[in-house]
Amino acid sequence: MERSLLKKKRLDMLANGLEQRDPVTIRVKGFSLSVPLHNFEWSFPGLLKRFRSVKQILKDVDAISPAGELTAILGGSGSGKVINSDFF
To answer: Where are any strands of DSSP class E within the chain?
Structure first.
């Protein structure tokens, strides 16, 4: 089969599959996110202390992504876009 015809068939299959799906609204209530910064420890004769430092990025966030609409997550490098999109 010719390559361009095969590509067209794939695109048609994709388009037909998308048309058959119902739009979905995504709602999130009270979403919180904390990330570990680093672990550290110190010792004294007979005593070992371990600490884990965390940073709260989001606290009690409510969000809605209406059905049939495009939603974008924007932010600077390291702001948690990938972590948030993995969650959703």
So the answer is: 26-44, 47-65
